[in-house]
């Protein structure tokens, strides 16, 4: 039987989800922007705000969806999974209550502590910004300052890295945050592991390293992620054998405490000298990390989705064993003052063997336009990170003007610096 699948969301992550299932189902999608890559893979597309839970559920019913995949956290926070489940359409994505693991950073830390999930940094939660500032003054060491709610990865300020203690306090006093988490600054190398979760099963995928800073050399403000790489093994070059397993243990401990969790569980880890610590959990695929993971997944993703829905054991996952490098092209000025509404050109013929994923662009009758977020990504694959990086760079000749790219992502010297950094910390 051909399944009818509804995909919610219109970014690069969702384009990679669409490509992973399009050949194996009747695919429909809805999002607030018109992503040409997703539209072309679907039997139907509707422009619907992905946070309008009732409108998404109505569309799912109209197209006869058997199941749905939810891309963005904003949709999870708005209860889109709840509305779909209520309408009898299985949502591969947690309901709003369980998505609090991502959408409420205070809950996330309290949950870890109560459920005894390993890897939780020291933290404190404040509803009063003056009290938070006093804590900064009294704390012996550097802190990360995190608004409790969703900020697209851009609200966190790390003292001793991005800001001074005085700047962090001014940031809090000038903000209208009603709750913040202050936690020990973790030092090390970051990596992501995404797991497919349903029916108590946890199936993990290869580790990925994202690059959050806007500019080359890890300079500039935090972004949603400028690019990312994965290796031929599940681990990354700067990780030791036990690090991947330790991080998987964290994800398994989460699911043990939340046995009804369904969807993707994404762990963002800081590999500190003593092992992986949890920076955050997300309740969905990473963007860009989905674009590293789904192209090398050999197990049909639809089989994961149907097993999840049918209450069966999730299939064991097989991967191609290729390394991947993903690089985003973003509007000039992103993330602080993005040049949205600018017409851009993408020469699809020049992408070559690389994969092209459209992201937060809007396709109109007269052309393709930027929005306030990342425009498109190119993914190279190869038998080493270096080979994948070369393929990604070749593919980037597709990019026209008015876009910015972090060319250093996946380059040998940057990867080598990560390895040296970990070696120094572990000496
Ligand atoms: P988050 O939104 O929690 O993922 O934070 C965004 C980024 O801020 C992370 O990817 C880290 O680079 C940084 N960050 C968050 N928490 C910490 C922490 N406790 N120590 C150091 N860096 C952090
Ligand atoms: N790449 C970071 C995120 O998806 O949150």
Largest sheet: 6 strands, antiparallel
CATH architectural category of the largest domain? 2-Layer Sandwich
Domain module tally: 3
CATH domain fold name of the largest domain:
D-amino Acid Aminotransferase, Chain A, domain 1
Question: What is the name of the CATH class of the largest domain?
Answer: Alpha Beta
Counted beta strands: 24
Uncertain spans, ≥5 residues at pLDDT below 50? Answer: none
The gyration radius over C-alpha positions equals 21 Å
- Large-scale geometry: globular
Ions, cofactors and other ligands present here are:
adenosine monophosphate, glycine
Q: Specify the number of helices.
A: 14
Note down, in words, how this protein is organized.
It is a single chain. This protein is α+β, with helices and mostly antiparallel strands and 427 residues long. It has 3 domains: 4-96, Rossmann fold (3-Layer(aba) Sandwich), CATH 3.40.50; 122-184, ATP-grasp fold, A domain (Dna Ligase, domain 1, 2-Layer Sandwich), CATH 3.30.1490; 189-420, ATP-grasp fold, B domain (D-amino Acid Aminotransferase, Chain A, domain 1, 2-Layer Sandwich), CATH 3.30.470.20. It contains 14 helices and 24 strands. The model has no long low-confidence stretch (mean pLDDT 96). The chain is globular, with a radius of gyration of 21 Å. The structure holds adenosine monophosphate and glycine. Adenosine monophosphate binds next to strand 7 and strand 17.
């Amino acid at each position: 039987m051909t399944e009818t699948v509804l995909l919610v969301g219109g970014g690069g992550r969702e384009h990679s989800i669409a490509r992973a299932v399009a050949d194996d189902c009747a695919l429909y999608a809805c999002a607030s922007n018109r992503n040409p890559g997703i539209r072309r893979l679907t039997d139907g597309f509707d422009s619907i705000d992905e946070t309008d839970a009732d409108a998404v559920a109505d569309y799912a019913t109209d197209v006869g969806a058997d199941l749905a995949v939810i891309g963005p956290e904003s949709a999870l926070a708005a209860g889109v999974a709840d509305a779909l489940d209520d309408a009898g359409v299985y949502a591969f994505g947690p309901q709003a209550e369980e998505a609090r693991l991502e959408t409420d950073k205070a809950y996330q830390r309290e949950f870890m502590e109560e459920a005894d999930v390993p890897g939780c940094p020291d933290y404190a939660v404040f509803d009063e910004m003056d009290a938070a500032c006093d804590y900064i003054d009294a704390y012996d060491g550097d802190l990360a300052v995190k608004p409790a709610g969703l900020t697209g990865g851009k609200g966190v300020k790390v003292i001793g890295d991005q800001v001074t203690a005085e700047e962090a306090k001014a940031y809090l006093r000038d903000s209208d945050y009603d709750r913040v988490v202050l936690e020990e600054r973790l030092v090390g190398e970051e990596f992501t592991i995404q797991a497919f979760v349903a029916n108590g099963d946890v199936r993990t995928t290869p580790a990925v390293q994202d690059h959050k800073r806007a500019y080359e050399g890890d300079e500039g403000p935090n972004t949603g992620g400028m690019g990312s790489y994965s290796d031929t093994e599940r681990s990354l070059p700067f990780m030791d054998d036990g690090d991947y397993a330790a991080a998987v243990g964290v994800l398994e401990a989460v699911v043990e405490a939340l046995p009804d969790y369904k969807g993707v569980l994404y762990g963002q880890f800081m590999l500190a000298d003593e092992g992986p610590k949890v920076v955050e959990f997300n309740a969905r695929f990473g963007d860009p990390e989905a674009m590293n993971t789904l192209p090398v997944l050999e197990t049909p993703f639809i089989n994961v989705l149907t097993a999840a829905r049918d209450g069966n054991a999730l299939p064991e996952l097989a991967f191609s064993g290729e390394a991947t490098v993903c690089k985003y092209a973003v509007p000039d000025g992103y993330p602080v003052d993005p040049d949205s509404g600018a017409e851009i050109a993408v020469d699809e013929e020049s992408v070559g063997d690389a994969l092209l994923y459209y992201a937060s662009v809007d396709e109109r009758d007269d052309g393709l336009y930027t929005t306030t977020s990342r425009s498109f990504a190119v993914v190279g694959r190869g038998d080493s990170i270096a080979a994948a990086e070369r393929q990604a760079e070749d593919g980037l000749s597709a990019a026209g003007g008015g876009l910015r790219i972090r060319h250093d992502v996946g380059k040998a010297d940057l990867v080598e610096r990560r390895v040296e950094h970990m070696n120094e910390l572990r000496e």
